[in-house]
Amino acid sequence: MVLTSVRSTAYDVDFDDGRHDRAKIGYVLLATEQTIQDDVMTLRPDGVGIHVARAAIPDSITSETLAAQADLLAGASATLLPDGTLDVVCYACTSGSLVIGEPRVMAELNRGQPQAKATSLITSVMRALRKVGAERIVVGTPYLDEVNQREVDYMTAAGFDILAIEGLNLEKDSDMVRVTPAFIRDFAISLDRPDADAVFISCGALRTLDVIGDIEVAISKPAICSNQAMIWDTLRLAGIEDRFQGYGRLLAEH
Prior knowledge:
The chain is an alpha/beta fold. It is 39% helix and 17% strand. It folds into two domains: 23-123 and 229-253, Rossmann fold; 124-225, Rossmann fold (3-Layer(aba) Sandwich). It is built from twelve helices and eight strands. The model has no long low-confidence stretch (mean pLDDT 97).
């Protein structure tokens, strides 16, 4: 069969708002990231689109490798829905966003997505802690001491009283993603102390979302983890008020 002509016809095409008619949220992830995308999809409300891009980084989470992410954020952000319909864009790395600093992170994200509301994972965490009324915090992380010190300094400068921080001294993201939820649960519970308003487990690579509800029940006070806080923050910035049970009072009540 020989095709003899190509013809375009002026159809009266029917359009709607697509599958993601409530909101579209973009996340810039580390190239090594293996946890955040699953967590976000677990709590994705119907009608909300999730879009991801990745910024290059070796399998080594240090102050130096995280700082190098700053120059990559705008380019990664720009690959997210270039039609300009993205509502919120987030740099989904707790340690990276505090090493680079929120003003630089948000400026770079908005270079790629000028119409979107920009946020970062450390921003989400601190908003979440304030929302649950927590000022005196104990923190657990998988990080090296050099990154832990940066986290203490950053959160202290933002007005939080960091009573203690404990790290697992892991450098590789590929190790962080393999820490079992059961270990994270017991680790978080062990950090609690009477003078703490909340326990915060830092790092989007950890599978803390799986057990954050159990942690909060065990300590009888707010428990915040990176991905829980980020999901809450990005949804609320997008105007999505859905609540979720079983993931702590932050997502159930605020």
